[in-house]
Structure to design on (469 residues):
């Protein structure tokens, strides 16, 4: 015999099931006499509220909460699927006591799992949230299973646990609620992103490598999208995307991700997203190679990359710093002229006590119009200056190297031009002796006398020739 006490227990069980997965408790059950108040054929509805608000403590009785705990934080595009619970292939009739007994037999924790013998589920009906709410309307009386099946463009950490909802739902005052509101627990993930730049480049024109590491959390729901956008500044030239990896596994271009025509955006394909889903909590590492083509005002080149996962964005920014060292080669003296052809080596470390280099040269240069210029990578992040040493290896033609061919320490600061003047001595040599001036005069007179004698001989010879003729 189905007693009033038994019926009260069944309805209480249904109330608890209706709120399972919401982190809230069921309300008091109605009495057996109130079953007659249920009106078969009355359409019902289930409104699922999804937001990024933290779960609230307290009770939910299936009514619309005022104020809304998720006001202004509703998540759009989250998909829920509704399935009516069947017994022996037919809907459970909650207008009669036997129907509530069948409903009670399903423990709340069974939602979403294997069902006992005789219970099945009808075909699912999906609905996505708009304004943070997914509403299933025009429902027949019965027991329903609600499952969160898709995150949409939301970075959801844990999907709401599947839960049962009854139509109607018993109110504490003995009436019945045909339009039930539920508020599943919500947990959103956050993206942690770190961007670094290597410090190996020393001179303008060398490659600069940027590495972006994104911590991707595990998710109960499949990831819908993953994009990485890196729009380079005018001071950087794109060279290549070197690699994209999930964990330690490198992805395959075209198969796992695509690159936009302007090389600014990487987008995971379905295959890449599937690998991301399978990896659980992991990292995505992307390596980009560029070349610095110019130094901006201030000397700091920032590069920002934006990761977007399921509509949630995170930025990572880092920088490299540059400055200029300019040598002017002049002849020794107050108004020394600029000299071409002097050759120099640039070092990032000081020479040893014997004047020998302690590292390989960073660059070489030859003066043109008296000048040699190096545009330099000084460091990354907060490293805004660097020290350099210059060695002259060849003096301009006609000049000699100084006894110490090394400069002192030259400190170059980001965004600035350090001009250093280096002079060379031009040797003149000692005065050489010459033959005296009096001797020169005698030689000149003697030469004139010889010339006069020779001229007279010619005249005598011509006169004799005329006389004989």
């Amino acid at each position: 015999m189905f007693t009033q006490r038994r019926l009260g227990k069944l309805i209480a069980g249904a109330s608890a099931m209706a709120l399972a997965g919401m982190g809230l408790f069921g309300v008091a059950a109605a009495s057996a006499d109130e079953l007659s108040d249920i009106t078969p054929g009355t359409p019902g509805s289930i409104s699922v509220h999804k937001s990024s608000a933290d779960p609230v403590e307290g009770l939910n009785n299936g009514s619309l909460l005022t104020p809304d705990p998720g006001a202004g934080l509703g998540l759009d595009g989250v998909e829920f699927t509704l399935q009516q619970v069947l017994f022996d292939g037919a809907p459970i009739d909650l207008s009669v006591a036997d129907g509530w007994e069948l409903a009670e037999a399903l423990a709340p924790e069974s939602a979403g799992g294997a069902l006992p013998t005789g219970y099945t589920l009808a075909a699912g009906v999906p609905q996505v949230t708009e304004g943070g709410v997914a509403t299933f309307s025009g429902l027949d009386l019965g027991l329903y299973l609600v499952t969160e099946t898709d995150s949409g463009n939301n970075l959801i950490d844990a999907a709401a646990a599947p839960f049962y909802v009854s139509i109607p739902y018993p109110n504490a005052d003995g009436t019945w609620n045909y339009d039930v509101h539920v508020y599943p627990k919500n947990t959103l993930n956050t993206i942690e992103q770190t961007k670094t730049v290597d410090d190996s480049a020393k001179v303008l024109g060398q490659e600069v490598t940027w590495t972006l590491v994104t911590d991707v959390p595990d998710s109960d729901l499949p990831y819908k999208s993953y994009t990485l956008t890196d729009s380079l500044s005018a001071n950087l030239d794109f060279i290549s995307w070197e690699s994209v990896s999930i964990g330690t596994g490198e992805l395959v271009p075209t198969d796992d991700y695509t690159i936009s025509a302007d090389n600014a955006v990487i987008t995971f394909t379905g295959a890449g997203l599937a690998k991301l889903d399978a990896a659980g909590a992991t990292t995505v590492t992307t390596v980009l190679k560029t070349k610095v083509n110019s130094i901006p005002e201030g000397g700091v080149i920032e590069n920002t990359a934006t990761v977007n996962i399921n509509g949630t964005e995170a930025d990572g920014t880092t920088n490299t710093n540059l400055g200029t060292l300019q040598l002017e080669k002049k002849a020794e003296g107050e108004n020394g002229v600029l000299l071409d052809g002097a050759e120099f080596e640039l070092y990032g470390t000081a020479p040893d006590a014997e004047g020998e280099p302690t590292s390989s040269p960073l660059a070489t240069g030859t003066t043109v119009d008296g000048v040699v210029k190096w545009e330099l990578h000084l460091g990354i992040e907060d490293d805004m200056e660097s020290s350099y040493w210059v060695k002259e290896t060849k003096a301009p033609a006609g000049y000699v190297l100084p006894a110490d061919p090394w400069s002192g320490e030259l400190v170059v600061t980001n965004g600035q031009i350090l001009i250093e003047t280096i002079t060379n001595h031009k040797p003149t040599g000692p005065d050489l002796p010459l033959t005296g001036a009096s001797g020169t005069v005698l030689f000149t007179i003697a030469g004139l006398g010889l010339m006069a004698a020779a001229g007279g001989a010619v005249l005598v010879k011509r006169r004799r020739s005329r006389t004989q003729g």
About this structure: Residues 1-34 have pLDDT under 50 and may be disordered. The first strand starts at residue 44 and ends at 49. The chain has three domains: 4-188, 192-320, 322-424.
